[in-house]
Design brief:
about 325 residues; 5 helices; Jelly Rolls; mainly beta; seven-stranded mixed β-sheet
Length: about 325
């Protein structure tokens, strides 16, 4: 693989293309300043304006959300896994039918494997523009977004209508649903009754891993973060590891899996048979199966990186830890 070919498989943080009309709450006060980024895969955007950086999917999707202070993402859910780690800022995640069942605050580097089957939202509670990176299970990212009924109703009041096809129409721009296409129905009472309302004490111990704990766990080998034998047990169709300077040796890696490298801190040198490149915080690099490569920090100081690989597990609801 040539350096030019590898660069096409690398999405640089400074070159990310945002979409401000990605979702149904794009006009809703308090949510109208958020930016959505689709990095790998088609993602779950409801807007034709969404830019896709790398369309090929490795069994999961990679995206990001950027928001100024006090901006929030409305309550929604997915049918497959949704994992976030905080790249920049301080974020509050909340969940439940009305967002009041539980909450957790995440700092930079913390990771949250959000349980399926419950509404969730998040907001930037820091003082500057913040960014969270996202991993969504499945090639089709779970078939889209399911919104809490009040989100759909409030969006309609501000001119956005979601069609049953999953596409947004902006009545403020003179758009209307095509003939024969109905609005997306809100979830009925029977479906809402099946949604989970777990308390914070039931979610955080099994679904949240803190950055500095992972730094300690990865002092001699990669820390297994999400997977069958990982700190956060799950089988969502992918696994997540956490790497630091101390968890690496000089051996080269040749995996039969797709491998996504997402630096958190420090500058990392990626070397393969054909060239080298430097990965920086916020970059996303897709290593194809079978490519022999090595990764190592290129400078002294704090260095950390999340690595995501596809697995043979079916991308579906969160898998409870065996008892």
């Amino acid at each position: 693989m040539t350096p030019e070919e590898m660069e096409k498989r690398t999405v640089r943080y400074g070159e990310l293309v945002p979409c401000k009309t990605a979702f149904i709450d794009a006009h809703t006060p308090g949510s109208d300043q958020k930016e959505n980024f689709t990095i790998i895969g088609a993602g779950v955007s409801e807007s034709p304006d969404q830019h896709v950086h790398i369309r090929e999917t490795p069994g999961f999707n990679i995206g990001a959300a950027g928001q100024p202070p006090h901006c929030r993402n409305s309550l929604h859910t997915h049918r497959t896994a949704e994992v976030f780690f905080v790249l920049r800022g301080r974020w509050r995640f909340f969940w439940g039918r009305h967002g009041d069942a539980g909450e957790v605050v995440l700092e930079e580097g913390d990771i949250f494997n959000i349980p399926t089957g419950m509404f969730r939202g998040f907001e930037n509670i820091g003082t500057d523009y913040g960014m969270i990176m996202a991993i969504l299970g499945g090639d089709d990212a779970g078939g889209g977004v399911l919104w809490a009924p009040q989100v759909i109703e409030e969006a309609r009041e501000h001119g956005l209508v979601l069609a049953e096809t999953g596409q947004l129409y902006d009545t403020k721009r003179g758009e209307s649903l095509p003939d024969g296409v109905a609005p997306m129905p809100v979830m009925d009472d029977a479906s809402l009754a099946l949604m989970q309302e777990p308390a914070t004490r039931d979610v955080v111990p099994h679904h949240v891993a803190r950055y500095w704990d992972l730094m300690a766990l990865a002092d001699r080998q990669p820390a297994r973060v999400i997977g069958e034998d990982a700190l956060l047990y799950d089988k969502p169709g992918f696994e997540v590891d956490f790497l630091t300077r101390g968890s690496l040796d000089d051996s080269r890696i040749e995996s039969s899996r797709h491998e996504i490298l997402m630096p958190m801190r420090g500058h990392w040198q990626l070397a393969w048979d054909g060239g080298t490149t430097t990965l920086n915080p916020g970059d996303t690099c897709a290593i194809p199966p079978g490519l022999s490569h090595a990764i190592a920090p290129s400078m002294s100081g704090e260095s950390s990186l999340y690595r995501v690989r596809n697995t043979d597990d079916r991308a579906g609801p969160t898998t409870p830890r065996p008892t």
